[in-house]
Write a sequence for this structure.
């Protein structure tokens, strides 16, 4: 892949989405669909690229969204094919009629939200997002069940019947999990609530699991079958990063090389503003060319004037030269959607990689910057 990216990607920086890898990531979910009858929704907040949504359309049962604009785009691309699920803490009264007309399912984030908006429109299936009060993320910034969480109805508030009109429940408690124990523990926590009520129309298990990295899915298969037999007619999964995370590359070129306080610094033509989670969470993104036991190291820094615009220190067999291309990998989720033109630098060009060749979708230019800021 590295050689092909070097030879065939003309723009730098560029975001490249490997559709062959996306198709491979779909396989464990297709197994679960066929083995259990569960339904798969793509969580478009990870990467709302229209070309991706269109390619996924034949392989998923719908899309999950978090806003009116996401719902509009998903609806345009789905048409009448598939379900459209929404949950958000920021549901607006002035948008609700349109949201309800677009969506097949809405999981209200709080009892207050449901009481104020639940009867404003009809035609969609009403649900609640549940906070099971189980934390699995080491970093509380990722933890939907942190103290004083804004995400979901505290399960302790649902000791009686579910509010009238509620047909389903949704939860999301994990992030980038490669084993299923958090999901099984969450289901166990929900069992008393589920036993108290008549069979739900649906239960949405949320996202946060990297199915392609989970060796044994039989436990999940059996759990879904049990849920469908006992608690809910339909079961939904919401993969986002699981489909696109390891399918995304950020290609970049070395602009400058110098020493700073005894360490080589390579300035790249991209920046952490093209993948803000790097700065927000102080992450070091994986680099395709890094050699873990390499003889030398260099700091890779972005081209903006932000002092903290640094990707990290990486090891190599030799220090890359000015003009050389490098590739960050596993950046398919929550990167491009958050990217900005800080300092006036263009956004990465966007490519789809299909059947061994790249297809250029968009190259950012000055007119795009001008449209954003020439007001």
């Amino acid at each position: 892949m590295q050689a092909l990216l070097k030879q065939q990607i003309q723009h730098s920086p560029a975001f490249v989405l490997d559709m062959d890898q996306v198709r491979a990531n779909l396989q464990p979910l297709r197994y679960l669909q066929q083995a259990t009858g569960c339904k798969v929704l793509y969580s478009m907040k990870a990467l709302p690229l229209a070309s991706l949504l269109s390619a996924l359309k034949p392989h998923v049962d719908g899309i999950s969204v978090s806003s009116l604009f996401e719902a509009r785009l998903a609806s345009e691309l789905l048409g009448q094919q598939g379900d459209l699920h929404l949950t958000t803490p920021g549901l607006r009264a002035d948008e609700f009629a349109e949201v309800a007309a677009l969506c097949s399912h809405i999981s209200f984030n709080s009892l207050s939200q449901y009481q104020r908006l639940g009867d404003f429109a009809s035609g969609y299936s009403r649900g609640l997002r549940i906070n099971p009060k189980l934390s699995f993320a080491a970093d509380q910034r990722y933890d939907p069940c942190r103290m004083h969480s804004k995400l979901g109805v505290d399960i302790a508030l649902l000791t009686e019947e579910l509010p009238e009109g509620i047909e389903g429940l949704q939860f999301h408690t994990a992030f980038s999990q490669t084993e299923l124990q958090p999901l099984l523990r969450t289901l166990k926590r929900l069992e008393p609530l589920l036993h108290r009520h008549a069979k739900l129309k649906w239960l949405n298990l949320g996202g946060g699991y990297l199915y392609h990295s989970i060796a044994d899915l039989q436990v999940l298969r059996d759990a879904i079958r049990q849920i469908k037999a006992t608690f809910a007619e339909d079961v939904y999964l919401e993969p986002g990063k699981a489909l696109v995370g390891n399918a995304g590359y950020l290609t970049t070129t070395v602009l400058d090389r110098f020493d700073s306080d005894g360490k080589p610094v390579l300035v790249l033509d991209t920046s952490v503003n093209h993948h803000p989670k790097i700065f927000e969470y102080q992450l070091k993104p994986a680099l395709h060319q890094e050699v873990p036991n390499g003889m030398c190291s260099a700091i890779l820094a972005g081209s903006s004037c932000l002092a903290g615009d640094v990707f990290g220190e990486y090891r190599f067999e030799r220090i890359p030269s000015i003009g050389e291309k490098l590739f960050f990998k596993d950046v398919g989720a929550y990167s491009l959607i958050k990217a900005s033109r800080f300092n006036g630098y263009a956004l990465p060009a966007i490519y789809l990689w299909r059947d061994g060749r790249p297809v250029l979708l968009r190259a950012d230019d000055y007119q795009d910057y001008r449209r954003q800021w020439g007001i």
Summary: The chain has a mean pLDDT of 95. The chain has eleven helices and 17 strands.
